[in-house]
Amino acid sequence: MDIELLRTFLEVERLRHFRKASEELFVTQAAVSSRIKLLEQTLGVSLFIRQNRQIDLTPEGHRFKRYAERLIAEWRKARHDVSLGETGAQLAVGGTIRVWDAGMQEWIHDVHRAYPELALILESHTPETLVRRLLDGQLDLGFIMEPPQIDTLNLIEVAQLELVMVTTNPDANLEEAMGQGYIWIDWGLSVALQYQRLYPDAHEPTLRIANASVALEFMLEFGGAGYLASREIADEIKDGELFLVRGAERIQRSVYAVHPVRTDRLDLITEVTGEFRYRVSLPKRPRRKKPSSA
C-alpha cells in the first residue's frame, strides 16, 4: 500500500478538513480527495462520513487508524535501519509530558553524548498512547509515571521524583500559599489523591496547568504557588525567585522505564535507563547562556 495514502488519511483524520490537509501535505485538495477515494476503494469500506461540512471517521475508519499509525511508524523505522546499515543502532523512545518535564530532556542530551552514533527517534505522548505504541512495537522504550500492569511489558522503577510546594512570596505560610494564586499543576492521578489526603480542606484552585514548565514560567511572571519538582527549581530557589512553603508536605513520585519483554535491544535499553537514573538524581543542569553578539 502507498505510504502517501496513509499519510493523507492520518492528516485528514487529524485536521478533519480536506483543504487544511492538502496545505499540510503540499498538494492540491483534489489530490487529497483522490487519495482518500483510492484508499477506500482498496479497503472496500468508507473511512469518513461527510455531512454538513463535517468530517468524521466511520467505525471502519477508527479501526483503520491504528493500523495506519503502525504502518507509518514501521516504515519510518525501516528507512532508518536501512540507511544506518548493519553496524548502525537505533532506538525509538517516548515519554509523557510529565516525564519530559522531570529530566528527560537532559537525559536525551546525556545519551547523545555517550552514544553519538545512536539514531534516536523521540516522541511525546499521553500515557495511554505511549503504552499502545509500546505494545504495537512502534516504540522500543518509554518513560512514564503511571505504570501499566501488562504481562508483555517490562516495568523498571528508574527514579524517585520529589515534588515540593513553592511560592514567589517569601513570607507566605501554608494557608496563604494555598489561597488565591495557587496553581494546580497536573502530576497525575496518584499525586492528586495524595494531595487530597494531605489537604482535605483545600480550596479548589482557579488556575490549572498541565505542563510543569509552563506553570513555572507563569508563576515567575505573575506570582503564586504550586507543587514543582525540586530538581527543576534548584536555581530559582538559590536565586531567591522561589521559596519553599513552610509546613507543606513533600510528595514522592516514581518514574518508570517500560519496554517490551521480547526485544533485540535489551542491552542498549539497560544501558540508557541507567543513564536516566543517574541524570534525574542530580539537580537540573543550568541552561546554557547564548553568547552575546558583538
TrEMBL record:
Family assignment from sequence similarity: Belongs to the LysR transcriptional regulatory family.
Gene Ontology molecular function: any one: DNA-binding transcription factor activity
Record keywords: DNA-binding, Transcription, Transcription regulation
UniProt cross-references to PANTHER family, sorted A to Z: HTH-TYPE TRANSCRIPTIONAL REGULATOR, TRANSCRIPTIONAL REGULATOR-RELATED
Superkingdom to which the source organism belongs: Bacteria
Cited SUPFAM superfamilies: Periplasmic binding protein-like II, Winged helix' DNA-binding domain
Protein name (record): HTH-type transcriptional regulator CynR
Keyword Amino-acid biosynthesis tagged: no
Organism: Granulosicoccus antarcticus IMCC3135
InterPro entries attached to this UniProt entry: LysR_HTH_N (IPR000847), LysR_subst-bd (IPR005119), WH-like_DNA-bd_sf (IPR036388), WH_DNA-bd_sf (IPR036390)
Keyword Lipid metabolism on entry: no
Domain HTH lysR-type: 1-58
